[in-house]
Design goal:
- By secondary structure, this protein is of the alpha+beta class.
- The protein is 30% helix and 35% strand.
- The protein has 8 helices and 15 strands.
- Strands 5, 6, 7, 8, 9, 10, 11, 12, 13, 14 and 15 form an 11-stranded antiparallel beta sheet that branches.
Amino acid sequence: MPGTVFLVNPASGSGATGKRWPELAHRAAGLGLSGETLFSERPGHLVELAAEAARGGAELLVAVGGDGTLNEAVNGLLRGGGTAELATIPLGTGMDFVRTYGIPASFEGAVRTARDGRARTIDVGRVSYRTWAGEEAERHVANVGSVGMSAAVAQRANGMSKVLGGKATFFYALVRVFLEWENTVVRVELDSGERREARMHDVIVANGQWHGGAMWLAPEAQPDDGLFDVVLIGDVTKRDFVTTAPKIYRGTYLAHPKVDLVRARTVAVDAPERLPIELDGEQVGTTPARFEIVPGALRVRVPA
């Protein structure tokens, strides 16, 4: 396919993607999808490669890896401009982005979607925050961002062996971090002027529906409605966790009295202490943070 560029994270899948790429590229070509391959060499490198490809007139960028790989591709594509569409071959741990759009998790199915799928226009989030060094930074999020314990879970999961698979890895990380986490006072301000200030466990800012290895955190989120689904998880206890954790995977935990769902175009989050921030499964920095919806910013190949 003319104008196709594969953006490959060789470290995804615990390094299996890099080792298997020659075979995978051959299989993709046999299915009718071929093009130039660009490999990332370090964290953040795919942002640069995607931006260069977009500026160079690429028609289709194919992110090969996990949700973090896709996040870098999105940031580079938006930085580079152009009219490229985005596809993904999910070979990472969480593989949550694809669930919202019904993109197959199988290699062959994902390749066929990249080759023949229709372009769906979706929103993204623009997020400003502080790096760990205290510098101001900005990044886009395609699926889900969070402030609080979920960011610590992402960090723990990314540092673990993935031999048990994404769902088990993230759930183990969730349990371990929850037992250590202490809820703190969090301030949340929405574009409507509504303000919340209370002890909270997590603030989930969702454009897509799934996160953290198949946790159905925002079952009502629509990625093209110009709004975030904002889930405010209050001062939950260990007992709350034991009784509610299974419901996270069924999307029914929103009925818990300490969980609240609101919708907004902008969300500002701050706290007396610096809380970690996670975007598309990668811990990037700390509060204060501001999330702003960018309507119709991205075109994604989804099943026809």
